[in-house]
Structure formats: structure tokens, C-alpha cells
Amino acid sequence: MRILMKTILSSIVLLCSAPGFSQPDFDNIDIHTLKVRNNIYMLVGAGGNITAQVGDDGILIVDTQYAEMSDKILAALQEISGGAALRYIINTHVHGDHVGGNVNLARSGATISGGNMRRDVTGQSAAIIAHESVLLRLTTTDAGSTMDVDGWPTSSYFEGKKDIYFNGEGVRIMHQPRAHTDGDSIVYFRKSDVIATGDVYRTDAYPFIDIATGGTIQGFLNAAQAIIDQIIPVYGQDGGTLVIPGHGRLSDFGDVLNWREMLTIIHDRVKDLKDQGLSLEEVLEAKPSLDYDPRYGDSERFITAVYQTL
Fold first, then answer.
1. pLDDT digits (tens, 9 = 90+) for 251-269
2. What is the pLDDT confidence band of residue 145, given thresholds at 50, 70 and 90?
3. Beta carbons of 267 and 221 less than 8 angstroms apart
4. How many helices (H) and strands (E) would you count in the chain?
5. Disulfide engineering: 176 pairs with which of 2, 88, 184, 304, CB 3.0-4.6 Å?
6. For the whole prediction, is pTM greater than 0.70?
């Protein structure tokens, strides 16, 4: 089973909303769907991975990729749910490859209230849940937001977590301060034992520490530990709790441990060099990530951000 997990399709593109990246060819990208466990699915396409929970109450998704992918995402959701309505969207952070489809997907659904979930429809769009920092950035023109109001979070939280109960399962949304951004959340589906991490964990590249939106290397380390604290493996480092990253393949305990180890080692190497008085240019020339570069690719942006946020 673990071998199968390791060979699952990776995300097709990197974080294309970040400076220096071009947008993908949306016409030639399909949505690939993987059943993770029980009623939890992983949707891979353009931008960040989407986690979908389906059931009698409707559909809940984590992140929305790009607006250009919305029709394909909706078709995939209808196929796995048998035509259920989209009720909740959870945004893990503010970047466009994770929130770009908010408007289209929210308008396709309907908000529900307590009581009879299947009948008591109170709004003409799905509810959007995110940390308060995501709401502030999406609604502040000075921050460069151009998103229509229908894509803004309708329910935000500002303390450590927010809990909801949907499709017979507790869903815990946990803030990860100042990691990838200042508004990151990880989402834990307790009954299914699946975690959706957003971009505080990925398998296909070094982390993007978005300093402009409050990201730091220490926040990434803390987020990696927070994910690990929720995971229970079946044996050793294998199986058990499954982890859906922001980009890349389905993971388990051993994968996240390796990620934390990489973050810790590179953090310590860069810190040691900086403490010796080396400039950023000298640290880059020292190649403190050399042994990890074949696995994660070009490290200049990552090392620069580590140095600047130590």
C-alpha cells in the first residue's frame, strides 16, 4: 500500500502565484482524483492539491486551485459525490493557486445551517472558512487583492483552531503562525485520520517562505512538528495517518519526518554560517543545501529566505 502511495501523481505545477512563475496551460491540464480513505479524496490539477470530503451532508473541500480550473474541479466533485452540493470551502492560505477558484466554486454551492443539513439551505453560495489573516489580505486593496466579494471568507477564526462537524466527522482547522504565510491552516479529518496541510508541507520542492506575507523558517519548523504531533503510524514510520500536501504526492509519517529533518538541518547550517558573520552571498556560495538539492531542486530562494528570517 505504501509503495502505491509513493507513486501517486505529483502536482503538475509549482506555486505559480509566486513571483517569477508563469501560469500553467490550463486547457491541457486535467483533474486527477485519488480516493485517500473512506470519503476523503485528493484532487490534483493546476496549483495546490484539493482535499474533498463527500457524504450525505454534501461536499467540503480544502482549497480551490485557479479559477480557470473550476469547471473541471466541479465535474470531478460531481463524479465522486454523485451530484451532492458543495457546502464548505476551507482555505489553507491566501495564495492564488489555492484560493483562485473561490468565487466560481462558492457560487456553485449553498450554505447550510444547523438542523436538517440536507434541507435547511440559508445562502446561495458555499461557506468559505479561513484564518483571519486570509480574510484581511483578500479584502485589503492595499495588499493587492482584486478578488470579488463572493470569494472572501464568510467565516474566519483568529485563535488557534476552529472545529466543525460535517458528514459525520469532526474536522479541526489549526492555525500555523508565520510559516508559509501568516495565515496558514492545516485541516485534520479526525474519523478518516487524514490531514490536509496546505503549503506548510509539500513533497515536490523546497518550501516557499513568503516573507512578504509573514512567512518564516521557524514557523515552518513549528508547522512540521504540529503535523507530526497529529500523526499515528501503523508500524515504525509507515502507514496510519495520511497526509495530503499542498503540492506533491500523498504522504505518511516517514515522509513528514524527512521533511522536518531537512528543514532542521538546513536551518542549523545557515544559522551557523550567519553566526560566523558570513553575508547572504557567502552563505549561498557555501551551498548549505547541497545534499538535498537533487531531491528538492534549486534552493537559492529558500536559503535566502532562511537567512533573512532567522
1. 999 999 999 999 999 999 9
2. low
3. yes
4. 10, 12
5. 184
6. yes
